[in-house]
Every structure is written in C-alpha cells, then in structure tokens.
Amino acid sequence: MTDLMTGDSIRIAMWSGPRNISTAMMRSFENRADTMVVDEPFYAAFLKESGLDHPGRDLILKEQPISWQAVVDDLLAPLPTGKRIFYQKHMCHHMLPSFGLDWTDGFRNAFLVRDPRHILASYVKSRPDVTLEDLGVERQLDMFRMIADREGKAPPVIDTAEVQAAPKETLTRLCAALDIPFDAAMLSWPKGSRDSDGVWAPWWYAGVEQSTGFAPPNDAARTAEFNSLDDDLKRIADAAMPIYEEISRYRV
C-alpha cells in the first residue's frame, strides 16, 4: 500500500495499553502544526463486540462507530489541508481477534510500553476490577511480532519512563525511527482538554488535562502504590512482566 491514496501523507499508529502516558503522547504530536490526531478510535467497536462494561460505555457507543470496518475507513480518509501526519492513539486490547489488521500495512507502527507494576498502580484508581487482558500486553506482543515479521524488522518501541526522564532525546529518536523530523513543539502544550479527546476523558484524563508537558517519572511513588495492592493484582503484574521485558528490548 503506497501513500495510502493521500499523496505524501504519513499515518502513525501508536500501539499502547492503558495508563501509559498515551494521552500525553497524543498531546505531544497534536502540538505539531503538521499533525492531526485521533483518540482510541476502536473503543466503541471493542465495547460493542466484547460486551464489557467500562466507564462511560453508553456515551462511547453513541459517539463512535461500532463497526471496526467503519473505523478503518475513517483512518484511511484524506487528511485536512495543511496536515501531513495523522497520529493515531490505539489501545492494543481494543483489537479483538475478529478485527482485521491488514490496514496497518503502509502505516508507520510504533509501540509504547510501561512497567506493568506502574500501569496497575494507576489503573485501579479508575477501574478497580482488572484482568491481564485489560492491560493489553499479550495482544501488544502478538501485534509487535506480526508487524516485525511483516516488515522484516522490529518496529520502534519507546518506554514511558524514558520519555518522562528525557523527553527531547527519546522523542528525537522516535521521530528518527518514524522518518519524520523532530519538532520542539512536541515537548510542551497548553493545559486543558481538547476537542480530540475521547468522551471517556472525564473518567481517565484528569491528570493529563493539568499537564503542560511530560512530567519527570516518580517510579518510587508508583512502586510504593503497587506494593500496597493485593496479591491477585501482583500476580497479574508477574504475568505481564516477561511480555513487557521482551518488547522493551527493542527500545529506540
């Protein structure tokens, strides 16, 4: 698939799990003058197909397409005048086995990972009932391997902690791996909500709405929060850790 039928447009699919600075990354790219973004476009299709009850479910189902094929059509549509890059924030666990993935061929796919202990410490604050599947790490590994096999090389990987600790350096490496120029505008953004934010923002985005850039990591606090979790949650982290470690070996 060449140029995705839209001239020289570039479409970036960033594959992540929840509670992983994925929205801050979306803010970072949206602050580029040449870029438009979309926030978790498969969420409603995922909820409709899975039947799961997430915060804001009815509103999400009303606001987004519930057909994954309709979502793909939107992701392949021509970009507005003045925009050359389409940054797409995706959750790996939204990509159910029944959803096609051929459309990712020709995209510049990348992966955002985070220590699963820190993901869980954050996740349970908004949704106490959590499973390994909710973290999306198994699906993330499946997709990472699929794309690596198809492209003959590992796609770019970035780690939340490294973005937070050294945003300019890490984003510069990411942009190089995606073959786009780094833009210093990616390092800061205005505080507040965005029209591009998903309708689920009231349940999940309180922190990022107060942000103006990438905050330094506070791993000690997250580790302390994780240590206070029950044994069932710690077993989920134990199961997720080898997957995280496997993908993170390919960090840019």
Walk me through the structure:
The chain has helices spanning 22-30, 43-50, 57-63, 68-75, 116-123, 132-135, 137-151, 160-165, 167-178, 201-204, 206-209, 219-227, 231-248; strands spanning 10-16, 35-39, 85-91, 108-113, 157-159. By secondary structure, it is an alpha/beta fold. The chain has a single domain (3-248), classed as 3-Layer(aba) Sandwich (Rossmann fold), CATH 3.40.50. It has a five-stranded parallel sheet with strand order 2-3-1-4-5, sandwiched between helices. Helix 2 (43-50) crosses helix 3 (57-63), helix 5 crosses helix 12 (219-227) and helix 7 (137-151) packs parallel to helix 13 (231-248). The radius of gyration is 17 Å and the shape is globular. It starts with 9 loop residues before the first strand and ends with a helix. Belongs to the class-IV pyridoxal-phosphate-dependent aminotransferase family. It comes from Kordiimonas lacus. InterPro entries: Class-IV_PLP-Dep_Aminotrnsfr, P-loop_NTPase.
- Mean pLDDT value: 93
Major β-sheet profile: 5 strands, parallel
Indicate how many domains the architecture comprises: 1
CATH architecture descriptor text:
3-Layer(aba) Sandwich
Kindly provide the radius of gyration, computed on alpha-carbon positions and rounded to a whole number of angstroms.
Answer: 17 Å
What level of helicity do the residues show? 40-55%
| Major sheet strand order | 2-3-1-4-5
Order of helices and strands: EHEHHHEEHHHEHHHHHH
Report the structural category: alpha/beta
CATH topology tier name: Rossmann fold
Quickly name the level 1 CATH class.
Alpha Beta
User: What distance separates the N and C termini?
Assistant: 25 Å
Quaternary status: single chain
Residue stretches low in confidence (pLDDT < 50, at least 5 long) are: 1-6
Shape: globular
The total of beta strands comes to 5
Share of β-strand residues? 5-15%
Number of DSSP helical runs:
13
